[in-house]
Design a protein that fits this description.
Helix content is about 20%, strand content about 15%. With about 325 residues, it is of the alpha+beta class. The chain has one domain: Cathepsin B, Chain A (Alpha-Beta Complex), CATH 3.90.70.10. Strands 1, 2, 3, 6, 7, 8, 9, 10, 11 and 12 form a ten-stranded mixed β-sheet that branches. Strands 4-5 form a two-stranded antiparallel ribbon. It is globular and about 50 Å long.
């Protein structure tokens, strides 16, 4: 079966199941004085997403899992920091809606790597095939992180067969990577009183102080998909209901919001002024996409202050030994 036919069948399956995996149409009209700070291109390969936030299980997980916040006046956070090249390579989920799998699995490996013990490439079949609460290539969510808590864990890549971009039989192999626990970030109740929203400071603390990658969600619309280089600032779909993709934040830059010592300056809620601050994100669409698999994007929309493409509405990090 050719890749084009497989992609078409998968897309039809996504539509049939009602899973939000296709890209949203840009909903925001650009202002006449809008100046783009990034370049784009048209990709000829299919890019799957796969995050399903609105399922009952997903919402229950987000509402009941302990949240932690690092918003504290005395904590000094470097003005910028990057884990690029230190937390694992860019992977490719292919035509399967398994972004949730890749985001969590690579975040676990990256966390172990920055703690000094790289377990090697981890299986992408483990969550995809063995977590019966997820929907395989039709989508999943943050709650799959439970499958990495010891004594459970991820086996070595290839020990349960190669990743084929398709859901298959669960083959349980010996885990080589586990977490003690995981935490969701945030204490700003905002528009989600039962699911606190992480601040810029929360995520920057984990990345820049703890030196760990963070698994986050985003509304990946067609403008975001077509990113090639520069700093993405289109922020063309900031609607939380359009969240459809999970990625990994590996870096940040507080830009102009720094003190004389070069440390970030946040407001009382741990955020930066509207339009200030960027994220460095590792995607799971291979190195042919974006900046060798990465995107640098604005954290917030300069005109509204909303999270750019709803990035990091939810954020999770692992705790390891």
């Amino acid at each position: 079966m050719t890749k084009n036919i497989r992609a078409l069948l998968i897309a039809i399956a996504f539509i049939a199941t009602g899973t939000t995996t296709a890209f949203a149409i840009s909903k925001k009209q650009r202002k006449p004085n809008f100046i783009s700070t990034y370049t784009s291109r048209v990709y000829h390969s299919y890019h799957a997403t796969g995050f399903v936030r609105q399922s009952r299980a997903s919402m229950r997980f987000l509402e009941t899992t302990p949240h932690v916040s690092f918003v504290a006046p005395k904590v000094k956070i470097p003005g910028s920091f990057s884990l690029r090249g230190e937390a694992g390579p860019v992977e490719n989920q292919g035509m399967c809606g398994s972004c949730w799998d890749f985001s969590l699995t690579t975040a676990l490996r990256g966390t172990l790597m920055t703690h000094g013990h790289d377990p090697g490439r981890l299986s992408f079949n483990y969550l995809l095939n063995c977590d019966t609460q997820m929907q395989g290539c039709s989508g999943g969510d943050f709650s799959a992180a439970q499958m990495f808590v010891s004594p459970l864990g991820a086996p070595k890549y290839g020990s349960d067969g190669p990743y084929t971009e398709m859901q298959g039989q669960c083959i349980k192999e010996k885990p080589v990577a586990s977490a003690i626990s995981y935490k969701l970030l945030g204490n700003d109740l905002g528009q989600f009183p039962n699911s606190p929203t992480p601040s810029f400071e929360d995520i920057a603390y984990v990345v820049g102080v703890l030196h760990q990658p963070v698994s986050v969600d985003i509304a990946a619309d067609n403008n975001w998909e077509n990113y090639a280089s520069g700093v993405y600032n289109d922020c063309s779909d900031n609607n939380v209901s359009d969240l459809n993709h999970m990625v990994v934040i590996e870096g940040y830059n507080c830009e102009t919001s720094v003190d004389k010592n070069g440390n970030c300056v946040f407001n009382k809620k741990g955020n930066l002024p509207a339009g200030v601050g960027t994220w460095l994100i590792r995607n799971s669409w291979g190195t042919d996409w974006g900046d060798n698999g990465y995107i640098t994007m604005k954290a917030t929309d300069s005109s509204t202050g909303a999270r750019c493409d709803a990035v990091a509405t939810d954020a999770l990090f692992f705790q390891v030994k």
